[in-house]
Write a structure and sequence with these properties.
By secondary structure, the chain is of the alpha+beta class. It has one domain (6-89, 124-139): Roll (Pnp Oxidase, Chain A), CATH 2.30.110.10. The chain is 30% helix and 35% strand. It has 3 helices and 8 strands. It has helices spanning 6-14, 54-62, 93-116, and strands spanning 19-23, 31-35, 38-39, 45-49, 64-70, 77-90, 123-127, 131-136. Strands 1, 2, 3, 4, 5, 6, 7 and 8 form an 8-stranded antiparallel sheet that branches. The chain is globular, with a radius of gyration of 15 Å. It starts with 5 loop residues before the first helix and ends with a strand.
């Protein structure tokens, strides 16, 4: 089992994997749920969710979260990143939600997804990666 280089892990995380969001949930096990995210190498990680949802409330209370992205085909790889929330702001449909939907569903599917729902109450939670864990089993 081998760690990824900084470039490898950032490139991997920048791909559109469905991430598993992990958030402290006092008195219980951490909340771990799938979520879309965006990340550009060297930058911050962005997720969108309602600030009144359980995810949003727990992120606000903890002030930080972790996210794990993995490949589900051999050779297995994963990147886990954890850090503080450095900004929370209202989500813009055109600047935030639609590009996120395009990232995961393509332009036509993303437009259909956005145009059929109401993301007007979502917020952008922006996390600054502090701690990284990564493995590329193909390097073994």
């Amino acid at each position: 089992m081998a760690k990824m280089s900084i470039e490898e892990r950032e490139t991997f995380l920048a791909r559109p994997h469905v991430g598993i969001l992990g958030i402290e949930h006092l008195g219980r096990g951490p909340l771990a749920v799938p979520i879309w995210y965006s990340y550009e190498p060297g930058g911050d990680l962005v997720i969108l969710t309602s600030p009144t949802s359980l995810k949003g409330r727990l992120i606000e209370a903890a002030g930080r979260f972790s996210l794990c992205a993995q490949s589900e085909k051999l050779p297995y790889k994963y990147v886990m990143v954890e850090g503080p929330v450095i900004e929370t702001r209202p989500c813009s449909i055109e600047d935030d939600a639609r590009p996120m939907a395009h990232r995961y569903l393509g332009a036509a599917g993303g437009d259909q997804y956005i145009d059929s729902g109401d993301d007007s109450t979502s917020a952008c939670f922006i996390m600054r990666p502090e701690h990284w864990y990564s493995v590329d089993y193909g390097k073994s």
